[in-house]
Each structure stands twice: as C-alpha cells, then as structure tokens.
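USER: For my understanding, would you kindly supply a protein sequence with its structure tokens?

ASSISTANT:
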Amino acid sequence: MISNNYSNRLFGRTRGKSKKKIDLKKYHQKVAKYQFQNCDEKINYILDIGTGYGETSIFLANQFLDKVIISCEKYIDGNIILLKNIEKNKIKNIRLYNGNAYDVLDKINRECFDLVWIFFPDPWPKNRHAKRRLVTSDFLIKIHKSLRMNSEIYIATDSTIYVRFILDSIYKCKDHFLWLNQSEMNLVIKDYFDIETKYYKKAINSQRIPSLFILRKL
C-alpha cells in the first residue's frame, strides 16, 4: 500500500520532453520480465534509487556480479534505455521497480542491502518544494533498517542547496550513520568510480562539482 504521507509521494516527470510515442502495453510487459517483487533471503541486494537512464545500475551490475541490483526509477524513457542495455549486454542481475523507493523499502522486512546508491536526486531548489526532496533524515533512517551492518549509502548531488539540506539530514541521524568522507566530500566522483552518467556530465559541463556523501551504517 502506498502511504498518503507527503514525503512518500512521487514527484517529477515520468516521460521525457520529446513525448516520443511509446507502446505502454509492451513497455509494462518488458518491465514485468525484470520486475522486483520481494527480497529472497538467499540473495544480497544493492538498491539503486533514481537511476535515470540506468548507467549506475549497469555499472553496479558489472561490478557486483554476486549481488542483485534493484533499479528503482519511475522515468519511463530512462527505463526503456536500461532495458535495452540489459538485453543487449545479457545482464542477469538487475531487477526493476518502476515507482517509488518508499514502496520498495516497505516490502523489505530484513537487513538485505549491502549498498544503496542515490545519484543526482531531483534537488527541488525552490523553498516551496523542499518537502519533495528524497534525502531526508526520515528517509535515511528508513533505509537504515534495511541495511546490513557496516553497509554504506552513496549520495551524489551537484546542487549547493541540496548539499546543505543533506548535511542537515545527516546531522539529524548521526547516531545511525558514520560519515566516512567528511573531510573530502568535494572530490570528483570519478576519483571513486569510473562512471559518467548523463547528469554527472551535465554538472561538469555547467562547471558544477558534484558532492559525494558516503555514509556507513552504525
């Protein structure tokens, strides 16, 4: 069941601006083939939230062949590209959830995630939209319940407004997480990972240095 809580609602576009015609019936049939349903106790998972065009999910799937990547994204155009790359590269360890990350977490009743990635979530920069931001202290604590001990969360953003918001959220749940890279937060993401997503490139081209937060469960 989807909660009526404001913070659990899903915002933003589900389609690109081009409005290219899509056979939604075929799309949902293909998603169903890779659909995440429930956690298997014999499998360890990585949760990739807001995957955009799926670059991070593909990267994680290739890096962690022994784990299943849950790619959580409501953006249909991006999921179509991800599905094409899954089939083109014959990737076996990605499952899709075409919807809200809160719903995925609500399905979890054990500590099953070894890693959570949240790369370039929508910053919702206007003050009146601040409640729409995904990364809050409440959300981090909710993830905490599904993380294995010493597992980590990686959060990337190029928004200075969101950086301040995330800092406040981390402080509010400091008893739950250790901020591992506190002294080097502004290192370029490629210092950690050999990956360039569409939104990473957009940030660099606009001369914005993405900030990367690495949190470890206590």
Remarks:
- The first strand starts at residue 45 and ends at 49.
- The helical segments are 24-33, 55-63, 76-88, 101-107, 137-144, 160-172, 198-205.
- The domain at 23-217 is CATH 3.40.50.150 (Rossmann fold).
